[in-house]
Amino acid sequence: MQTVKPEGEKSRTAKIIGTVITLAAAIVLILLSTKIVPAGCTGVVVTMGKVSSNIYQEGFHFKLPFIQQVEIISNKIQVYTVDANAVSKDLQSISSSVAVNYRVNLNASADIYKNVGKNYQTVLLMPLLQESVKAVTAQYTAEQLITERSNVGEQIQTILTQKLGEYGIYIEKFNIVNFDFSPEFNAAIEAKQVAEQNLIKTRTEQQQAIVIAEAEAQKKIIAAEADADAILKKANAEAEANRKLRESIDDIILKYAQIDKWDGQLPKVTGSDGNLIDIGIGE
Question: With 80 as the cut, is the pLDDT of residue 132 above it?
């Protein structure tokens, strides 16, 4: 037997269902009428397909449901890495990996979304980055790209800053992560480095040999000077001895001559008392 609900109970049930539906619709309408822009981002307002010049900054905002939508554009510093192929001034093929730190200017968010779209990395950043790398590397030889890597990076960053600045994208930092060359060029560079190291080693050994030879020559000079000084001193000593010997001999010869000429008679002098005095000549 089927139970029939009273008319009042049916009315209350219908009211409850209606209230729930109304609340759900209100909640959906509120969600569609609000937008939260995250920190470090801007909200680009699009009204029925038309991009507004007014943008929403970070925080809570209201919008027209079903008519307006808010596209989020990040203004934080972002990193974009890409592989770029180029040719050097001496026609060497170069495979490079580069990274750029960039950010979108807050006031340019609407224009970038309108003219480029949200996929501005692929549409704008990548081709300009490739173009800038090729333009700069073509001005250097492969060897210069290695030795002047810092200057190459600065030039690429300058070109990117100028080109992307027109769209409101600022370059914070640019890095050349890696330069890679053909196997033949790498082998040639390695051979050159080995040759330079061998040359440095040879020059070092030659300089060491020169230093050793100069030291040995200086030792010989010092030894020769010492020998000459010793010989000179010996000669002076012998000369002095000869001089003394010669003086001694001369004295003996003189005395001998005196004795040889003496007649054996002593000279005498008469004193006041009449006695003879021997004056000692010939002793």
Answer: yes
Confidence (pLDDT) at 133: 93
Question: Would you say 44 and 84 are in contact if contact means Cβ atoms under 8 Å apart?
Answer: no
The whole-angstrom separation of Cα 164 and Cα 180 is: 26
Structural tokens at position 167? 């769209």
Question: Angle, nearest 10°, between helix axes 126-137 and 149-165?
Answer: 140
Question: Would the pLDDT of 281 be above 50?
Answer: no
Distance of CA 278 to the CA centre of its chain: 110
Q: Which two tokens stand for residue 191?
A: 């051979």
Cβ atoms within 10 A of the Cβ of 4, count? 7
DSSP, collapsed to helix, strand or coil, labels residue 59 as strand
Please report where in the chains the tokens 């080693």 appear, as a residue. 201
Separation CA 90–CA 137 (nearest Å): 10
- The Cα–Cα gap between 160 and 166 comes to 10
